[in-house]
């Protein structure tokens, strides 16, 4: 999802940063739902040995796995989003409205 802050100040770096952080937290939300399911499954399967659960693994999955996904998304948006708009403006200027 992209926040609509570009209508105030288009192509501002802070707008892109806010959108990237927002999308990071959206992705972490889905990973934390996955982690919760894994934790509940593991707690049920290992009923009497929940002290052996590695909570740092769950923390890593919930917070660190979304980082490369968002970094790849941000790089893609940085290089390809402007190209789309440049092409669109060029076509409007060439063919009119």
UniProtKB/TrEMBL annotation:
Bilayer topology term: Multi-pass membrane protein
Listed Gene3D superfamilies: Rhodopsin 7-helix transmembrane proteins
GO BP annotation list: adenylate cyclase-modulating G protein-coupled receptor signaling pathway; cell surface receptor signaling pathway; long-term synaptic potentiation
Positions of transmembrane segments: 30-49, 56-76
Pfam families: 7tm_2 (PF00002)
Protein's recorded name: G-protein coupled receptors family 2 profile 2 domain-containing protein
GO cellular component: axon terminus; dendrite; plasma membrane
Predominant cellular place of this UniProt entry's protein: membrane
């Amino acid at each position: 999802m992209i926040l609509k802050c570009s209508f105030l100040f288009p192509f501002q770096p802070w707008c892109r940063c806010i959108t990237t952080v927002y999308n990071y937290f959206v992705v972490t939300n889905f990973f934390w739902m996955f982690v919760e399911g894994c934790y509940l499954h593991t707690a049920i399967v290992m009923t009497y040995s929940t002290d052996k659960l590695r909570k740092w693994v769950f923390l890593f999955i919930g917070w660190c796995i979304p980082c490369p996904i968002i970094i790849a998304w941000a790089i893609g948006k940085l290089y390809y989003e402007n190209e789309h708009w440049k092409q669109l403006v060029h076509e409007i200027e060439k063919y009119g409205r």
